[in-house]
Write a structure and sequence with these properties.
Elements: H1 2-20, H2 25-37, H3 41-53, H4 58-78, H5 88-115, H6 123-138, H7 140-156, H8 161-185, H9 192-196
Length: 197
């Protein structure tokens, strides 16, 4: 049993090294699926925690987290979790879907703004951008629920490192949300080219 966990840990180390070396995440994602087929999410979390304890930088684990979140998302989409409406995990997953939709909308808006030569051509997009920025500010409640409800439960079960990585990601997202909000508030004082940049 211990040897199997050690093998999985070594496989994860190898995948992280490949990501660090520049192998596209999609390629690594396929290899990671093979590791996941033989490991539960709890095992993966514990292995990630062990890697951090052994000295692997959290940023390297975070790179792998992006890949395994994509894999987990695929798996979750295939499975229908039997959770009652109002279950905390159900609520967090629903909120996450909404934030992903907002993120996609933000990408669409950004592309249209980048292609425009003048702000007058994207007035609808600017209005949508303000809406998206405000909704992202409201998403703070989601992060607080994860940090104050979900993370303590994980930590209670000995999973401490993955929540700390997620918290680090939350802080990065908070900075981006703050930048987006500031940008939309200062829109009238910026030249359009500066706004696009």
């Amino acid at each position: 049993m211990k040897e199997m966990i050690e093998n999985k840990k070594n496989m994860l180390k190898e995948l992280i090294a490949q990501l660090h070396a520049g192998i596209p995440p999609l390629e690594v994602k396929e290899r990671f699926k093979q590791v996941l087929e033989r490991a539960s999410p709890l095992e993966i979390s514990k292995i990630e925690q062990k890697l951090i304890e052994e000295g692997m930088p959290r940023e390297e684990i975070q790179r792998l987290c992006d890949v395994h979140l994509a894999v987990f998302r695929e798996q979750l989409e295939k499975q229908k979790l039997d959770m009652p409406v109002g279950h905390p995990i159900s609520i967090l997953m629903e909120e996450h879907k909404i934030m992903l939709q907002l993120s996609q909308k933000l990408g669409t808006i950004a592309n249209k703004v980048q292609q425009a030569s003048d702000i007058s051509y994207v007035s609808d997009e600017i209005h949508s951008l303000e809406y998206v920025a405000e909704n992202f500010r409201d998403s703070e409640k989601h992060y607080l629920r994860e940090e104050n409800v979900l993370f303590p439960v994980l930590e209670k079960h000995g999973i401490t490192k993955p929540p700390s990585i997620m918290w680090m990601e939350h802080n990065q997202i908070r900075e981006k949300k703050k930048e987006l909000h500031t940008l939309t508030k200062n829109l009238n004082t910026l030249k359009f080219q500066d706004f696009k940049e």
